[in-house]
Write a structure and sequence with these properties.
By secondary structure, the protein is an alpha/beta fold. Helices cover 31% and strands 25% of the residues. The protein starts with a helix and ends with a strand.
Length: 208
Amino acid sequence: MSTSLSLVDRMQEKAALAAAVVSKVASMDEAIAYVADVCANKEACQILASGCAEPISDTAEALCRTKQQKIVCAPDMPEDVVAKLTALCEDRGIAVITTGMRKRLGGIDIALTMAAAGIAETGTIVVRSTDEEVRLATMVAETHIAVLPAGAVVADSYDLEDRMAEWMAGPDYTAFITGPSRTADIERVLALGVHGPLKLHLLILEGN
């Protein structure tokens, strides 16, 4: 077994222990099909703005109706990936967006992002971007699906030191994400999805 394969296997094991759903995919096309299937098979996310049940103005009522269908957000993804994902989702009545997430008061079902690195020691993915839409995607979607190239997996956080120094030399947003959002601050009762997605799916892209 090669070192790289050992790192990938450890990444998969540790991420699963942190409650992530981990799968290996052979191509981006396979990853795109996975995203479309997950969205099609889940219940639609319904997060309504406060006060929507009361008589309100026409403008406010229009905002309350922003969630008309399931939504996949794929910010900062390559154009060809977005085009293929849109084609797969269109027949299933799923909208694919890349911008404008602040206007989606009804909630986002799936966020699709690329991970810049994976830390095998803890099953952590590293997502970085200067795009606000990516930052929102990793925070407000009900389910986060991240694609991690197998070649981007490192043993531990120390192996990222040089890259972190390079990334932080300019404006940058880097998030270390381990499993779905969770907290036990209130009476030590574990709650999921309080500060971010309820579910994290990690797709390890083999051969990359």
